[in-house]
Design brief:
Length: 478
Amino acid sequence: MYDVIIIGAGVIGCAVARYLSAYDADVLVLEKNEDVCAGTSKANSAIVHSGYDAENGTLKARFNVEGNCMMDELCRELDVPFERIGSLTVCTDEGDIPALEELRQRGINNGVEGLRIVRRDELLSMEPNIGDDVAAALYAPTAGIICPFKLTIALGENAAVNGAQFKFDTEVKKVYREGGLWHIVTDDAEYTSRAVVNAAGVYSDIFNNMVSTRKLNITPRRGDYILLDRSVGGYVRHTIFQLPTKLGKGVLVTPTVHGNTIVGPTAYDTEDREETATSADGIDSVIAKSAISVKGLPTRQVITSFAGLRAHEDGGEFVLGEAEDAEDFYNCAGIESPGLSAAPAIGKYTARLIKDRLQLGEKADFIKERKDILDPSALSIEERNELIRREPAYGTIVCRCESVTEGEILDAIRRPLGARSLDGVKRRTRAGMGRCQAGFCSPKVMEILRRELGVELTDITKSGGGSYIVSSRTKDGD
């Protein structure tokens, strides 16, 4: 029996687990995929919003601003790349400047600092490639960029080091309350706990509706993105938004913390909770709409495209806290944008609610810091040579595009919640994220996984489930 079971190991579930792991509690995280960060959290804009967009007084506004303020300290503690580069929300008509002013005032009311309107002359000095028709922009200096993989993995690893248990490839089928405890039935076992956290992303309405008469309805909203090669990094210096619509903040163009440029998303509502395939129409739409805010985008340098799903609840608001008619069942539902920005604040808030309800004590030995995988390129030549002398695997380049070494891949596999698939290695090390998109390094990464996990090559997957790379050997022998 557990004190708390968390359904879902995305950024929200891992944030709740990390903050809960500071208390004396038995915590179990159940995830239907083979790794953390395998759902909504793996495919988004990778930005930290300042907090001007959400309506005043909403949970989205509160937790966006709180989460933004927490990012610097949290990322220092967990060794996660984060940069406050600022954002620009542009308009192409002088007549829309009052709408920018409205956003500015909304942001001020939400507690966002430093917001101001920037006219075209100043904009050109900030962004030389701004669209020819852009007239003005709302500048938000507290906005930033982050790696959603690194953040989610770091939160999960830190929770695991502090005692939280994770069980992957485990799909929750049913949740019910009996005898004062929650029962969670999965595809292979049944677990009991005093409290449940529903952080199941696009599936969170399903679990809420099993236990509560206040029904939720989540519509998966698919967004297509393109990613440009690092060779054109620096084409934009800020996150550039367009004036928001009812479907979101439009197509953005932004640098990433790794030096790429990301463009997107579209917004298509779908009934399929697993529909993450891109479409030609979607990619064409991304490219066409991006030209409104940024001119001459070098789309010939696109190295990949992808799509993600946002969990849009009918009320258009985060659904947080204890379900009103389901005692000790805590929702973290409807977490769409700005969910990544709000994740630390949502995790801390939910953990405190449970701590107070279950009267959990604080751990005297809570470990709040964590070190990421060592990056040899960040070392001096002398330090790198010494590292290779001690550990020769750091002298073998496996991924040429991203200069990822065998030592980094070994670390990714051996550390807490270690990688078990090609995508697991990729999210932790960037092996396979470069220009050739794993065309060169996949066989070597597979061989390292085979050796480290003690399995056959035919057991290695791209991303768990049935995504096997090798079906069989063509011949026997050494």
